[in-house]
Amino acid sequence: VDGSAAAPTVGLHFTPELMQTMRDKGVDIGFVTLHVGLGTFRPVSAKDIRDHVMHSEYYVVSDETVQKVAKARQRGGRVIAIGTTAVRTLESASEPGGMIRAGAGVTNIFIYPGYTFQVVNALVTNFHLPQSTLMMLVSALAGRERMLDVYRQAVEEKYRFFSFGDAMFIY
Fold it and tell me: In this model, does residue 50 exceed pLDDT 80?
């Protein structure tokens, strides 16, 4: 959907063949829209991250995706976001109990360590820049020390970083 300043690049890892394999294994796939703004790429410069002013982005969550999250919750399944944009969208549309609401809105949610996730249980994402809001989001899910260890290994093993690099599964 036109409107985003950047592509949701981690999704490029998911070929049509991989998507079909996932469906064949019983994975129910839902989609959301988040129009990524240029602020996503601005490093956090505040000494206290709570003072960082997060940019706003437009998002859309369909009724179909709401039903898929509800179905996953009812059967005790996980909600695995593909990309930080999906995390921000799902958490912005969250309601108590881990459910989401359909609709469109604008979010300036800033997820950093200490955040309590309402919807997302796991994440597939690229390796992000230090001091970025995206690195803070993944640290909120996996823990700061764990992410520092993962990044040390990635550097040692010469993983490819940033938008078209390697991806990781965080749970």
Answer: yes
